[in-house]
Amino acid sequence: MRELSYMERLLGGAEVSWLPLGEVTQYEQPTKYLVKTKNYDDAFETPVLTAGKTFILGYTDETNGINKASEAPVIIFDDFTTASKWVDFDFKAKSSAMKMITSSDDTRCILKYAYYWMNALPSDLIDGDHKRQWISNYCNKEIPIPCPENPKKSLEIQAEIVRILDAFTALTTELTTELTTELTARKKQYNYYRDQLLSFEEGDVEWKTLGEVAVIGTGKHDTKDAMEDGDFIFYARGRDPLKLSVYDFDETAIITAGDGAGVGKVYHYAQGKYALHQRAYRIVPSEVMNPRYVFHYISAFFYAYIQKASVSSSVTSLRRPMFINFPIPVPSLDEQTRMVTILDKFDTLTTSISEGLPREIELRQKQYAYYRDFLLSFPKTEEVAV
After folding, report:
1. Do 334 and 225 contact (CB within 8 A), yes or no?
2. How far apart are CA 282 and CA 235, in angstroms?
3. Pairwise CA distance, residues 200 & 301, whole Å
4. Which domain covers residue 248, as residue numbers?
5. Is 174 a domain residue?
6. Domain contains 276
7. Average pLDDT, the chain
8. Which H helix or E strand runs over 234?
């Protein structure tokens, strides 16, 4: 005899009805809760929420128009990314792209059950400007409601699923927090030793400008040129490389963003054939420089350099002279290689996605997503399309 699955035992033979999200929830724009001040400080009490994955933009002392979410939790939904957050604390809002979703019928659907289900949906964004997921489209996504003819039992099943996922979420969060804390400590340790290793006393080593020891230039492509099935890595301005069907260069180079949020913070180490964005820079070291040494040195000190060199307090765009004039110490190649050997070991431990702590964090998150999706995998007929 076939053993019943957990979901089959939980349902006890009851039917499952698939209803549009818009039938059991409602939403509103956070217009009346929008923050006016730009004076953010961690010393203030009220968090300011923004659209996207950043979530908490900062904290404000503005007291008018605060959403009392602590009294009635809401789901914060973002039109552009389909990200959703469970919010059970008071807040101000920053972006009108956010939607505040609440239950429209507490006798049919527990709001937190809807929240977990929304996070289990695949990210099937519609085509359009910024790939915005209009709420009218998202409201037609169908959510499984167990035992629709028996509201009491339906809510009991939903509550049990929420209880399990709450417990598993807490455990996953605790483990992830511990791993993230360890990773942060390792990164601080790495940055300390890296900066110490790459610091030279005046007169101990020859100094040159980056323009003297490297070729510096940009690419020619735009982000819209990217394609999922491209054969070559396409470095744009973000942390995650894209793909392209053609390549611009075949070399070893350091790649960094020329404008945007990644300025002075995003660096890639390119080897072989790759394509390059028109506002990303390639730095190709000469034969007197170990490319990995240049990569580590720029990663350590270039951001602080451009902050001092810029007339603005917030650098959002770089120009070629900023790279050309960047001072860099030039020890012997043997010494550069020795430093690279030490720094690469630290780098692997702290940043590699396939080794060390980041991989462990990723595995915990995948494990959580697997069990969450399993708990929300209700049987459905062929005509139901989520």
Report:
1. no
2. 10
3. 13
4. 206-330
5. no
6. yes
7. 85
8. strand 232-235
Q: How far is the C-alpha of 12 from the C-alpha of 212, rounded, in Å?
A: 75
Helices of type H across 80-122:
111-120
Q: Of 375, 99, 114, 324, nearest to 215 (Cα)?
A: 324
Instruction: Flag whether 6 is in a domain.
Output: no
pLDDT digits (tens, 9 = 90+) for 96-133: 778 899 999 889 999 999 999 988 876 555 444 445 66
Taking CB atoms within 8 Å and a gap of at least 24, the contacts of 183-191 are: 183/350, 183/357, 183/358, 183/361, 186/346, 186/349, 186/350, 186/357, 187/350, 189/346, 190/346, 190/347, 190/349, 190/350, 191/300
Q: Is 90 a member of any domain?
A: yes
Whole-prediction pTM = 0.64
What pLDDT, on the 0 to 100 scale, is given for residue 323?
92
Burial class (CB in 10 A: 0-12, 13-18, 19+), 174: exposed
260 — alpha (psi -120 to 50), left (phi > 0) or beta? Answer: left
pLDDT of 250 strictly over 80: yes
CA 160 to CA 170: how far, in whole Å?
Answer: 15
CATH of the domain at 71: 3.90.220.20
> Residue 131 corresponds to which tokens in the numbers above?
């790939």
Domain-terminating residue out of 312, 330, 348? 330
Cβ density class 264-303: b for 16+ within 10 Å, e for less? bebbbebeeebbbbebbbbbbbeeebbbbbbbbbbbbbbe
Number of domains in the chain: 2
Helix, strand or coil, per DSSP, at residue 364: helix
User: Where is average pLDDT lowest: 1-5, 98-102, 258-262, 333-337?
Assistant: 1-5
The crossing angle, in degrees rounded to 10, of helices 291-309 and 151-197 is 100
Residue owning tokens 């455990």 = 171
- Boundary residue ending a domain (285, 305, 330): 330
Report pLDDT digits (tens) over 277-286.
999 999 999 9
Picking from 378, 330, 381, 313, the residue whose alpha carbon sits closest to that of residue 120 is 378
- Gap between the Cα atoms of 318 and 308, Å rounded: 13
* 226, 315: one domain: yes
